[in-house]
Amino acid sequence: MQHLEPGAQVAAKQRVLEDNLAHIGKVKAEIILPALHGPSWNYRSRARLSARLVDKKGGVLVGFREKRSSYIVDMTSCEILTPDVSALLQPLRELTVQFSNADRIPQIEIAVGEHITVLVFRLLAPWNDDDAAKVRAFAEQHGVQVWEQSKGPETVRPFWPETAPDLSYSLPEFGLVMPFKPIDFTQVNVAINRALVSRAIRLLQPQPGERIADLFCGLGNFTLPIATSGPISPSTTCLK
């Protein structure tokens, strides 16, 4: 929907939400709050990119899939990713095509924290020593962490450097810094997330003595702000 101006994008998404509430939930909202607005470009702090060795294209494609297709868009930059991540797309193509297992890397997941960027390579076959040296050099040159994933989420682990600071995002209004792992769920738009949490807490107005359960709380994106609000914090329970 990036071809639409930002206001039209928000309006279209709001119509979809209202239609889903009516047709799926069989409810109609009594009050619709003004939509939250944030950056429309260069905001996305997470991405799951596909990778594929395509001989006809002369190398490896790294990018998003085409709509309703298994084909990967031939892209060298992306205007919705943060600028430093967008700038990595072409170097990632040039790196991946050099690997001995270039045809065995279907996915590269990107997670951006406030001070750190992590690339998680999904490996269907391991890197050899020469590949590993190239990965380390790439990580050092571009100032990123490289992680690897051989099977399910439980196999995700740091590759280079082997020990490094955690990813994190902050909620300054509540004095919180939230550490997270590269494949943990976090909101992709940091500015919108801060506005969303702030509005939710204002609407909830947690009071001393209340007991509040946060269902499907994940990292505690709402739970911890609730727990730190007010002179006497309410009791909160995080249910994953």
Helix-strand layout with pairing:
Layout: H1 6-23, E1 46-54, E2 59-63, H2 83-86, H3 89-96, E3 107-112, E4 117-122, H4 129-142, E5 145-149, E6 157-160, E7 167-171, E8 176-180, H5 190-204, E9 211-215, H6 223-228, E10 235-239
CATH topology of the largest domain: OB fold (Dihydrolipoamide Acetyltransferase, E2P)
Please identify the structural class as seen in this structure: alpha+beta
What is the overall number of helices? 6
Task: Kindly report the spatial arrangement of strands forming the biggest sheet.
Answer: 2-1-3-4-5-6
Distance between the termini: 32 Å
Q: Strand tally, please?
A: 10
In percent terms, what proportion of residues is strand?
Answer: 15-25%
Q: Specify the helix fraction band.
A: 25-40%
Nearest-integer average pLDDT:
93
Low-confidence stretches: none
H/E element string?
HEEHHEEHEEEEHEHE
Global outline: globular
- CATH hierarchy class name of the largest domain: Mainly Beta
Q: What's the CATH architecture of the largest domain?
A: Beta Barrel
Question: How many structural domains does the protein architecture include?
Answer: 3
